[in-house]
TrEMBL record:
NCBIfam families recorded: choice_anch_E (NF033208)
Domain of life from the UniProt record: Bacteria
Signal peptide, first to last residue: 1-27
Alphabetized UniProt keyword annotations: Signal
Name of the protein in question: PEP-CTERM protein-sorting domain-containing protein
Amino acid sequence: MNIKTLNKIIGSVLLTGSLAIASSAQATVITSSFTNAFEVTEINQTGSLSQFDSALGTLNSATLTLSGESLSSTVLTNNAANPANFSFTSVLNFFFDASSVGVTTPVPAFVTQLASTAGFVNLGSGASLNLGPVSDIASYSVTLTGGDLTAFVGTGLFDTSCSTLSGSTFVGGGANISNDQTTSAFCSASISYDYTETTATPVSAPASALLFGAGLLGLAVTRRNKKTS
């Protein structure tokens, strides 16, 4: 084996070792979540999510998703002596507070639909119209990066609270339409952390490469000396 060939082998070994080190960092995603139980509205709920432990690696971004679900049964009754022409819509507004991690949410964060006549309807005197049950789900999501991530880093928990306000709108009906509505809802939330996980540096890899190269060099020199003696 000549010196030129040996240099190529040593270079290849060292390059392999350096590539192994470079590939030790990889992107990973972990999540934390909570889901509360259905409660009769109006609700006021709280849940806890885990912070990101910096011992796992370097946090790149955090995606906070706030969700809510409503379930409603609605019966409208015309109490007037004459038929009534009207439209009706009922919604549930979800409000979230994530100020503990510096997140400001829209007010409301989102709205779910509880009932709707989907336009104008005509209801006879004393007649009732059943608009339920209606189930609806909605959510709001925000992704944070850079300096906005500071409050998410730690080894503890942070709280997110939620409350609701329902609202109904009649157009027409002469205020003679009664609304018998039962609604329950719940809030949930999740946090997804995208981070770069850095594994322990394989310090033995370059050292082994150098030792292997030195061994090859020594072997080549020994063989060359034997040939010249």
